Amino acid sequence: MRAVLRWRALLLALALGAAALAAGAQGQGPVVVWPNIPLIRAADLAEYAQDRQAIADLHAGKAEPEKLLATLQALDALQTHAQQGALAELGRSLNVQLIAELDALARRHQLGAPRLRFDFSGITPQQLQRPLVLDGLQERLAQIQMAGYITYTRLDGTLVQATLTLVRLGSGAAQSFSATVPVQLLARTLAQDVFDHFEGARLAPHRRPADAGNWLASAPGHADRLVSREAAMGYCRSQGAELPSAQELQAAEAAGFYGGGLALREGGVYHVQTGLYDTALAQDGDARVRPNFIASVPNGLYYCLRHAAPARTASGARKQR
After folding, report:
1. pTM here?
2. Counting Cβ atoms within 10 Å, is residue 124 exposed (0-12), middle (13-18) or buried (19+)?
3. Which of 279, 284, 257, 281 is nearest to 268 (CA)?
């Protein structure tokens, strides 16, 4: 964890120092990336499982305390020594494989100028993962626009959970990509996520429907309950609102909960102005509406819609004066 915090602090300091160089890094042109991507080890859950089993055996009387302690200390020293060498080799191989996978994706999709360009001038693949190489990053802020690091946790066997974090040095903005896969698939999986993010089509952002008004949840006492049409209409009126039309409810469902709309229950039935809107029906709009024959029977959920007041024209405002 301390290693992660130190690396974040370094990138933040570089981002603050590179603020004046940010103008060219925010466009749609290539983004130059520092090729040294440190691999930082987090918690090892597989080791914890082994330690817990050893302690459980001790409590069960299967091991002598003195022998168990000596064995654990010897294994810990051996493992620490092995990890220091293995981590550097794993980091170097993962570093170059990630870049190679990104290059392969660019060739496969015939991209002559991919968005991410790794600048190896003054650095060789053999130098990757060496701390001294990081010092060169500060000297090349005029050329480098992005840097990154990978944190990982070993779960069981070859399975790892890893997160690649890329930071724009001009603004400090970061984007993270996570994967839980066997270690031999880690570089390919992360590369595909990074490639999709930077090379994928930039779609226009969703806009909330202009005439949607303000949606209100059902009354606190009606939450997650079927109520009658009369009860639903009465609460909506008390809030200066009304039941929505089928088209308005459909538009809100299409926009989604995170796009200014609503999340309707699968198989839910909702009160609308012309009856009951049944989400279990395959059709859309009015085709989902069925009659509500008895308005006093608790047979539907509901939302209220408070329409925005119509904008006054300039001529209308002058007339009121």
Report:
1. 0.64
2. exposed
3. 279
